[in-house]
Amino acid sequence: VSSLYLSYTLDNDVLTTEQRQFYEDNGYLLIKKLVSDEDIERFRKEFMRICKKEVKVPGAMIMKNEALRSQYGKSEKVVNKVQDFQEDEELFRYCTLPEV
């Protein structure tokens, strides 16, 4: 694949051409075990605290998938994204991990 068609990733030795193409086509890339299980669990817990409104994050938007409401009611399982969470130090730490 020519890098001419890869507009969202850079030529380097971090990702394979196949990984870059997958990201270009799908908008995400899954790399298993990139982040430790311990960190993932800490981020998951903080995400759940935000969803349950146990912690208030200034400016954060909690996005819900209303199609799941009939299955999960008002539980945190209907939340599919938390946006603008940079004021939450623990969850934002994910964005600053060298692995990421």
Structural notes for this entry:
Pfam families: PhyH. Belongs to the PhyH family. It is an enzyme of class 1 (oxidoreductase). One of its GO terms (biological process) is fatty acid alpha-oxidation. This protein is an alpha+beta fold. It folds into two domains: 1-30, no CATH class; 37-96, no CATH class. The protein contains four helices and two strands, in the order H-H-E-H-E-H. The chain has helices at residues 17-26, 37-51, 69-72, 89-92; strands at residues 61-64, 79-83. The longest helix is centred in the middle third of the chain and has 15 residues, at 37-51. The chain is globular, with a radius of gyration of 17 Å. It starts with 16 loop residues before the first helix and ends in an 8-residue tail after the last helix.
- Note the total helix count: 4
- Head-to-tail CA distance between termini: 24 Å
Number of strands: 2
**β content, as a range?**
5-15%
Order of helices and strands: HHEHEH
Oligomer: single chain
Low-confidence parts, pLDDT < 50 over ≥5 residues?
none
Secondary-structure content class: alpha+beta
Helical amount: 25-40%
Q: Can you tell me the number of structural domains?
A: 2
Strand order of the largest sheet: 1-2
Mean of residue pLDDT values: 84
The major beta sheet can be summarized as: 2 strands, antiparallel
Radius of gyration: 17 Å
Task: Categorize the overall geometry.
Answer: globular
